[in-house]
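User: Run a structure prediction on this.
Assistant: Running it now.
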Amino acid sequence: MTERLYYTNSYVLTFKAAVTAIDETDGRYRVTLDESAFYPTSGGQLSDKGNLSGEKVVEVVEDGGEVYHILDSKPGFSVGDKVSGKIDDARRRDNMQKHTGQHILSRAFIEVCNAETVSSRLGDEDSTIELNRDTISDDETGRAEELANIIIFEDRPVRIEFVPHDKLKDIPLRKIPDREEGPYRIIVIDDFDWSACGGTHCRATGSVGMVKITGREKVRGHFRLHFLTGLSALEDYRWRFDQIESISNLFTRHGRESVAAVEGLIEENAALRKKNAKLRKEMLPALTEKWYGEAREIGGKKIVTLDFTGADFTEAREAALGIINRYTAAAIIGVDDKLMVAVSKDFGASAADILKRAAGLYGGRGGGSPQLAQGGGFSREDIKVLLAAPEKILDI
């Protein structure tokens, strides 16, 4: 079995080791060493990456207690050779911050509202903890996040202890491991948290930088929280800050007033849309008369074609119904990548059939009734073509 150097020191980033085996499966090579600082994917934490004597290690996995270093190409070394290992330090630091931050956040929720973590996942872009509650209030979330960051700012020591099974009862573990063999690797955050864990961790809480909860959701009767740490949290803050600054500049308001400004704009827009709908309804008879007057005649039948690019699809429906309820005609209306087809009852053709032919010719989809059908998935170019030559989709 590989001796795991990270097990006693997460800050080992370079090492030398002997190659004990190499095997190949589906073009990928698995390399085992007598000792390694590479952390394999396990316990919700992603593996390290790096290289072995210049050969890129794309993944590290654990199987049957053995650590396998995965290479995408055949290595230039052989079994028995000594190789130099180098860990991607940025990825290792990120994983250490996430895992230590997760321990701190999990304990914080126990302290604030007695909510225990039942699972965690530390991803490349997003990390989560799942709590054994179906709901967590905004106040509880805020207090737990604040406590977690206080522990980080206090820069408390984080140490590794190896404890035999019969001594586990003497320490306040969040969860006692199921297996009985030992000793157990315990990550201790000074006077705050004790957790059995095989992951890589910071030497002190201050190295986590900060922890920020970024999302909340219910899942399987539990409550899942999304969070970021360290530079990932800083990057998240940057783009959020930039967005708020851009919005506040548009309104020439302070960033803290952005929400109120946007809410005011939404209310104003809703009022204008309501007024516009009222005016459109009043103008519809005159517009339908105009559209019908401009209709082309195909096979002795009147066909109205309209391009409503940028309009609300509701407007297309109102226009279509306004035409067919007043005249013996068909209305074909394009709205961006959507198509509305309507025919009067005495027109002698089915709107659903016309839409089906359009979808067959141009790759869209949709359906409807003999009088009214609608679909989407068309390209703007195809919408323009069929509006210019509707005879292609008519069977009259």
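The radius of gyration is 32 Å.
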